[in-house]
């Protein structure tokens, strides 16, 4: 019992962070599934969503700024795809990935310019920022809200992909880009939808994540972004349930390591896990195998 | 002249539940031109890939010049899935990577030409000499291997001269016309000093005139370099004209073998190519 | 153009470079921005070329460069901090446990070797991975290396997350130019050798390269290790330039910056990487500097200008290059004196003089 009470905060934090990573990871995994692109800018879109909330809530009431943050983030994701990735559709994969790195660089530098590089306090959001006590451990309510919200969103998304027309189109495109084009699927609208869904989830994740960590800096998107990507690879890139499971595992492990007093290694551990899974089973937990034809 | 050079024994290649090559046995003797024919999807290229080490056969063994270059029995997941024959026959496991097999003396060309596109014609051929030269990365960087390099260059230029590719030695490989790209790919394979040359559809996309030239070319290089040739081809004129023996593969299995005349008359072959007439 | 003529041109160009550097040293004040650009540009040129060796010439998408630079920088610093400074530098770790120093040049080579050894070990498992998986795995390793260097348990060697300082540095522009120049020359020799051809073959078509007898694992490992060796030396030079070392500075964003340099210069072009390094550093540190300061024209404050605006403009320029000039400055071509010859012939033709044949 004592063990549980002393470790419960870490476990709770792990589940909560895991849920937030999961929401970001879905954006990575869906984009990778369709474009075979590691969208390096995704973590920065998440960061921008954080800053939007800071600036919007300063002038607008929270019930206006919340939907507005989500809307603007979605718009940003859409614009980034149209401007930076669409022109490179026929280019080698390396070019488009470098374009993603360029976008990430641009977003970080813009954020730095607008904030002068200072950390900004994240606003208090009623309902999720207040504290609660569970089994003797005090935590923010967001810790409890996150996993529930994550699961709900993921279920909705999976249903969407399974049962709607656009979902079917997405699955087709991720199978075979060219053939689905020949079948009359509008590739560009499918890709845009993917980016819209990804950005939407990233915006939700940013609200949950920053409510918990309470400050935003221009580089605070980089690490969660990378970790979410690792989660996506861990679970098997292209697979949504895989990304979610991977994210929870990484979130929990990372916080347990912090609990053991090895905070320096919490980031390194994530990457160690990544390398182990890549070497042992490159397709991840739930991934499918693609073979090259000779 | 006529020792056995390549011996493929009961080779099966299974991908998941699909058997691409089924219990195939082939023999190629030194100095022969042997053709492997069959309808599309019969498993001919997979056979090549198993011989050259791109794939590891699921079961069976391959011997080249008396030494085993591949031998396997169903392992791991395949133990349960395996649907071929002779399951328990090959206890030994031998596998080589494609580069090791090239070093042993088997060279190949590809169905869809695979040249080094950003490199010049001469460089494409020089690559083949890389493994034959006595050098290491240090001597190569500081040009202490200049004698080897000079020798390689001389040999490659001579080879290109023979193949009438010398005038375009500095052109990008990808800028050559299709026919010359084919010829360059064969030259590149020759530059590895092979004993056995595997040609995967060398006449694909060629017109009758070019095909005729190609068949003369194949015989010519065979004699000149003392080669043995195993080729996959759909142009029957070429196959019947130059091959000493023919193997016919369909749905992974060997359905016929023999001299061109024998194969032409074989009912199985006719059925495989033209289809069997069903009773209405 | 004959080899002899090429050699003469090269020597002439090097002499000209030396004279220009000397003139700069003599005439310009030590605080001139030009020196920053020249020093840092030379260092970045070396690292960018080493990155190009793996990414551009061997076709492996590796993002570990910052990690290897970090190893080089630390190795150099640890073995060159004078013993009498140890007490001050390693103040939290009883003066550290490395109680000897080595000469600067030896330390530079050690920096390269240390990075190369790490790269070799990392390469064993990860080089089997395909493109983006390799990228993310090498990026991961760079992060792991960074965490280890900041770990308290290694404090007596690495000073944990504290600065390493007081090691020998350089103050002339010659030093980074000579070291980088020699290293880049070696890389160029390698690229033009039989092994360089093998690397390019792997980049163009792995399956065909294997069919030509090239051992993929061995050659990829070679390219990766050698690239890291030079990245390590580059890291050591960067440490000298910055006069302090801290693991926190070698983030993945540094690798991204280098990758952008390589792409802007042209994947597969050494001279492109060198040129792009100097342009990149000059633009980000010097030419766009005015964008960072509030400027008034009379009473009118020029809008937008202010701290950080420089980098915004800079990243926009980079995006434009990435999107519209995908081939970079040089594509995969190299700078050659022959190009001058072409220009000269062009002018001769234009002005109707007789063509001189050589």
From TrEMBL, chain A:
Alphabetically list the UniProt keywords: Amino-acid transport, Cell inner membrane, Cell membrane, Membrane, Transmembrane, Transmembrane helix, Transport
Matches recorded under InterPro entries: ABC_transp_permease, BCAA_transport_permease
Q: What is its main location?
A: membrane
What GO CC annotations are associated with the protein? Answer: plasma membrane
- Localization of this protein: Cell membrane
- Which BP terms does GO give this entry? D-alanine transmembrane transport; L-alanine transport; L-isoleucine import across plasma membrane
Bilayer topology reads: Multi-pass membrane protein
Q: Which spans of this chain does the record mark as coiled coil?
A: none
User: Which chain regions cross the lipid bilayer?
Assistant: 12-30, 37-56, 62-84, 96-114, 141-161, 190-210, 230-253, 260-280
Q: Which Gene Ontology terms cover its molecular function? A: L-isoleucine transmembrane transporter activity; L-leucine transmembrane transporter activity; L-phenylalanine transmembrane transporter activity; L-valine transmembrane transporter activity
Family indicated by similarity: Belongs to the binding-protein-dependent transport system permease family. LivHM subfamily.
Name the UniProt record assigns to this protein: Branched-chain amino acid transport system permease protein
Species whose genome carries this gene: Sporobacter termitidis DSM 10068
Automatic annotation (TrEMBL), chain B:
The record's keywords, sorted A to Z, are: ATP-binding, Nucleotide-binding, Transport
UniProt cross-references to SUPFAM superfamilies, sorted A to Z = P-loop containing nucleoside triphosphate hydrolases (SSF52540)
Q: Which GO terms describe its cellular component?
A: plasma membrane
According to its UniProt entry, one GO biological process term is:
L-alanine transport
Q: Which GO terms describe its molecular function?
A: ATP binding; ATP hydrolysis activity; L-isoleucine transmembrane transporter activity; L-phenylalanine transmembrane transporter activity; L-valine transmembrane transporter activity
Which positions fall inside the ABC transporter domain?
6-276
Among Gene3D superfamilies, the record links this protein to: P-loop containing nucleotide triphosphate hydrolases (3.40.50.300)
| Protein name in UniProt | Branched-chain amino acid transport system ATP-binding protein
From TrEMBL, chain C:
InterPro entries, alphabetized: ABC_transp_permease, LivM-like
Topology in the lipid bilayer is annotated as: Multi-pass membrane protein
Which interval of the chain is the signal sequence? none
Q: Which keywords has UniProt assigned to this entry? A: Cell membrane, Membrane, Transmembrane, Transmembrane helix
- The primary location reported for this protein is membrane
Q: Which GO terms describe its cellular component?
A: plasma membrane
Q: What molecular function does GO assign, one term?
A: branched-chain amino acid transmembrane transporter activity
Residue ranges of the TM segments: 7-28, 66-84, 96-121, 173-191, 258-282, 302-325
State where the protein is found.
Answer: Cell membrane
Protein name per its UniProtKB record: Branched-chain amino acid transport system permease protein
Organism whose genome encodes this protein: Sporobacter termitidis DSM 10068
């Amino acid at each position: 019992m004592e063990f549980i009470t002393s470790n419960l905060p870490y476990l709770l934090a792990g589940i909560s962070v895991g849920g937030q990573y999961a929401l970001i990871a879905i954006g990575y995994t869906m984009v990778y599934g369709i474009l075979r692109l590691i969208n390096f800018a995704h973590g920065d879109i998440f960061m921008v969503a954080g800053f939007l909330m800071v600036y919007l809530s300063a002038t607008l009431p929270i019930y206006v700024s919340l939907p507005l943050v989500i809307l603007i983030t979605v718009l940003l994701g859409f614009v980034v795809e149209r401007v930076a990735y669409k022109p490179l559709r026929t280019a080698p994969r390396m070019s488009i990935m470098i374009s993603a790195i360029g976008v990430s660089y641009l977003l970080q530098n813009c954020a730095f310019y607008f904030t002068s590089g200072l950390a900004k306090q994240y606003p208090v959001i009623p309902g999720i920022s207040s504290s609660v006590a569970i089994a003797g451990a005090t935590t923010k309510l967001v810790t409890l809200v996150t996993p529930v919200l994550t699961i709900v969103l993921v279920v909705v998304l999976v249903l969407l992909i399974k049962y709607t027309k656009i979902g079917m189109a997405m699955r087709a495109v991720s199978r075979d880009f060219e053939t689905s084009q020949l079948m009359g699927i509008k590739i560009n609208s499918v890709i845009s939808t993917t980016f819209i869904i990804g950005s939407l989830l990233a915006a939700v994740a940013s609200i949950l994540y920053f409510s918990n960590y309470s400050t935003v800096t221009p580089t605070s998107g980089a690490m969660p972004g990378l970790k979410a990507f690792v989660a996506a690879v861990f679970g098997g890139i292209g697979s949504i349930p895989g990304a979610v499971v991977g994210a929870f595992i990484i979130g929990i492990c990372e916080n347990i390591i912090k609990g053991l007093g090895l905070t320096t290694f919490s980031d390194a551990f994530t990457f160690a896990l990544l390398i182990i899974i890549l070497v042992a089973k490159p397709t991840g937990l739930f991934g499918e195998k693609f073979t090259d034809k000779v | 002249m006529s020792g056995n050079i390549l011996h493929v024994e009961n080779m099966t290649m299974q991908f998941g539940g699909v058997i691409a090559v089924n219990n195939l046995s082939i023999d190629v003797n030194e100095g022969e031109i042997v053709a492997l024919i069959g309808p599309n999807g019969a498993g001919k290229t997979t056979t090549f890939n198993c011989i050259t080490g791109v794939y590891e056969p699921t079961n069976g063994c391959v011997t080249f010049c008396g030494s085993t270059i591949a031998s396997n029995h169903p392992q791991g997941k395949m133990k349960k899935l395996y649907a071929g024959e002779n399951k328990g026959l090959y206890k030994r496991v031998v596998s080589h990577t494609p580069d090791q097999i090239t070093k042993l003396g088997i060279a190949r060309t590809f169905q869809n030409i695979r040249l080094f596109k950003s490199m010049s014609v001469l460089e494409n051929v020089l690559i083949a000499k890389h493994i034959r030269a006595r050098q290491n990365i240090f001597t190569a960087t500081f040009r202490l291997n200049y004698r080897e390099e000079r020798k390689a260059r001389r040999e490659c230029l001579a080879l290109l001269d023979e193949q009438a590719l010398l005038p375009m030695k500095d052109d990008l490989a990808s800028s050559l016309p299709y026919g010359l790209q084919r010829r360059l790919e064969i030259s590149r394979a020759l530059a590895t000093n092979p004993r056995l040359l595997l040609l995967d559809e060398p006449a694909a996309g060629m017109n009758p005139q070019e095909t005729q030239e190609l068949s003369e070319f194949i015989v010519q290089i065979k004699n000149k370099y003392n080669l043995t040739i195993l080729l996959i081809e759909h142009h029957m004129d070429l196959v019947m004209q130059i091959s000493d023996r023919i193997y016919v593969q369909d749905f992974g299995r060997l359905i016929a073998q023999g001299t061109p005349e024998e194969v032409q008359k074989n009912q199985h072959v006719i059925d495989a190519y033209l289809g069997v007439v069903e009773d209405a | 153009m004959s080899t002899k003529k090429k050699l003469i041109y090269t020597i002439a160009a090097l002499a000209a470079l030396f004279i220009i550097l000397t003139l700069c040293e003599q005439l310009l004040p030590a605080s001139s921005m030009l020196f920053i650009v020249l020093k840092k540009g030379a260092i970045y040129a070396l690292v960018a070329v080493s990155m190009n060796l793996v990414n551009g010439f061997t076709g492996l998408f590796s993002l570990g460069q910052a990690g290897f630079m970090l190893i080089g920088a630390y190795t150099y610093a640890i073995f060159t901090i004078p013993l009498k400074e140890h007490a001050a530098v390693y103040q939290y770790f009883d003066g550290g446990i490395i109680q000897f120093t080595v000469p600067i040049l030896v330390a530079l080579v050690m920096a390269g070797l240390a990075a190369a050894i790490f790269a070799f070990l990392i390469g064993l498992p990860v080089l089997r991975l395909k493109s983006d998986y390799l990228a993310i795995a090498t990026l991961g390793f760079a992060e792991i290396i960074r965490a280890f260097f900041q770990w308290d348990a290694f404090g007596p060697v690495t000073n944990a997350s504290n600065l390493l300082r007081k090691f020998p540095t350089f103050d002339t522009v010659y030093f980074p130019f000579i070291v980088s120049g020699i290293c880049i020359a070696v890389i160029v020799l390698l690229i033009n050798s039989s092994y360089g051809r093998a690397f390019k073959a792997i980049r163009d078509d792995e399956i065909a390269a294997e069919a030509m007898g090239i051992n993929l694992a061995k050659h990829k490992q070679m390219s990766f290790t050698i690239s890291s060796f030079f990245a390590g030396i580059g890291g050591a030079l960067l440490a000298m330039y910055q006069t302090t070392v801290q693991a926190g500075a070698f983030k993945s964003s540094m690798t991204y910056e280098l990758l952008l340099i390589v792409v802007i210069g042209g994947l597969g072009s050494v001279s492109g990487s060198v040129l792009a390094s100097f342009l990149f550093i000059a633009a980000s540190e010097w030419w766009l500097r005015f964008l960072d300061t509030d400027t008034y024209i009379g009473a009118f404050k020029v809008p937008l200008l202010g701290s950080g605006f420089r980098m915004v403009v800079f990243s926009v320029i980079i995006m434009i290059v990435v999107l519209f000039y995908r081939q970079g400055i040089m594509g995969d071509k190299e700078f050659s004196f022959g190009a001058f010859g072409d220009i000269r012939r062009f002018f001769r033709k234009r002005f109707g003089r007789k063509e001189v044949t050589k």
